[in-house]
Amino acid sequence: MYIIAGKLRLNELRETELPKLRQKAEQSGLPEDAQAANDYANLLGSFEKKLHDLELTRMISVQMGPQIRLIQNNDSLMAEKIQTSIVNTIPLWKSQMVLALGIAHTQSAMEAQRAVTNLTNELLKKNAEKLKMATVESAKESERGIVDIETLEQTNQMLIDTMDEVLTIQKEGREKRRAAEQQLRSIEGELRRKLLEVRQ
Fold first, then answer.
1. Total structural domains in the chain?
2. The domain containing residue 115 runs over which residues?
3. Are 62 and 168 in contact (CB under 8 A)?
């Protein structure tokens, strides 16, 4: 709104006040009137540069949105990673504790039942088989990845989209700066021509 208001005011001053000053300079032929018109034109040029700076600041503010979103996405990804680690690590710790207790109980039973009958030997074999199954299952669980391949594909696509968006923003920024430079050169040339007309 400030930019729009500034442009409207700038156009109004160029169409009303500046022509009055130039007309006064032409009518009086006094150098101080010509200088006053020139100074006023310079003031309007400075005001136009300020408006352009506001437009550049507005573009920077617009770019802040995607930058903040990138930070939020990174925070979300890290929170999910930490949550996944917690969900997978705590059950692993529990299973290892149970396994350690089971082994300790098995060793105590083996020491207490060395001289018993074949029934005790069969019981020990069953415990060994259960221990093997528990160990194999624990090994299988420990070999599972903590991150799904779908998640990696999604994060990879988000990274590619982020890079594409950054490149697009940079390209648009370069194009706007080039257009602004051309417009400033055109305005500067127009101002020079007008100054020459005032001095004549």
1. 1
2. 2-199
3. no
